[in-house]
Amino acid sequence: MNAHRLIPTAALAGAVSLGLVALSACAATDDSGRGGGKVAVTASFYPMQFLAESIGGEHVSVTTLTKPGVEPHDLELKPRQTAQLGEADVIFYLRGVQPAVDKAIAQSGVENVVDAASLTSLEKHGTETGGHTHGDEEGAGHGDEHADAHGDEHGHDEHGGEVDALDGADPHVWLDPVKYAEVAKGVGAALEKADPDHAAAYKKNTETLVEKLGGLDTAFKQGLADTGTRTFITTHAAFGYLAERYGLKQEAIAGIDPESEPSPARVKELETIARRDKVNTVFFETLASDKTAKTLAGDSGLTTDVLDPLEGITDKTKGRDYFEVMHSNLDALEKALGAK
Questions:
Q1: What 8-state DSSP symbol labels residue 111?
Q2: What is d(CA 40, CA 166) in angstroms, rounded to the nearest whole number?
Q3: Are 302 and 279 in contact (CB under 8 A)?
Q4: N or C: which end of the chain has fewer CB within 10 A?
């Protein structure tokens, strides 16, 4: 499995041209923040909101469907939110994360819709995911082997739309700075197309953001280059792309769905893995229950810490934006993995 496939030019062009036409000015102002000549953007959840705000800047008004503190996978839209979808100039979403949103967008009638899943290459990841990158042989081979072994085991009954939409692919591309930069380029191009009067500003903001994501990638590469173990245990199988990018191995208690319960056999397997791979920490997240992680940690004599999948920002989040949270994640991984 290749974690470094470049975004196909045809795919980017197709996504950008997906109904993105010149926008008419909207003089009216409503409670979704529309008005003042700004482009009314609706983002499905935080990773898309962050891109829209960072690239759009003062020229866009961004409304987010997933409010702070809500677990995005479980979002159910209110009728008012569904109705407001149809008033957006542009919608940015990531197909496969939120089945309810996918369905509402398909029925919204909005022409200017950009699916982040079409802006980068997606892969299948299971409860056990690893990879090797940049010549790091230690992580070699984990990605293909474990995706085949575990790729269809988790969370899909509750979220059947996720499987149908992406054929079981992992949507958590924003946790890989390189893939997130590919998505950012597509979002920037979409805003340039939608609002040509401010194309230069969108282009400049995109370049700034992509450069900053490159710096984050470098920080992860350097920070995780030499560690005591390459294995980390987390409740939610959200970190498959990150694991592949930096030659780590993700061992998830649950699957893609953070609320799914592990089998007793999986728990026993994780206890064995923790001893074998010298794992000392079980990671949990802020938007889902930490009960399973703390139970496993207690039974195995391990500590717990937060590894944030960045699906939303709350008062409990270690950081105020994407970059701050990602640096907190790096600090947590360095500590847990024994970075030298």
A1: S
A2: 27
A3: yes
A4: C
Residue 128 has a pLDDT of: 62
Q: What is the pTM of this model?
A: 0.79
**Coil vs helix vs strand at 181:** helix
HEC secondary structure over 32-80: CCCCCCCEEEEECCHHHHHHHHHHHHHHEEEEECCCCCCCHHHCCCCHH
**Residue 57 and residue 51 in contact, taking contact as beta carbons nearer than 8 Å:** no
Per the prediction, the chain carries an average pLDDT of: 79
Beta strands in the chain (DSSP E): 39-43, 60-64, 90-93, 113-115, 128-130, 231-234, 249-252, 281-284, 303-306
Dihedral sign for Cα 113, 46, 203, 246, please: negative
Query: Could you tell me the two tokens for 277?
Result: 């791979």
Amino acid at 171: P
**DSSP 3-state of 130:** strand
Work out the widest C-alpha separation in the chain, in whole angstroms: 63
- SS3 for 232? strand
pLDDT per position as a tens digit, 17-28: 333 333 333 333
Tell me which H or E stretch contains 16.
helix 9-16
Residue 257: predicted pLDDT: 57
At what angle are helices 177-194 and 46-56 packed, to 10 degrees? 50
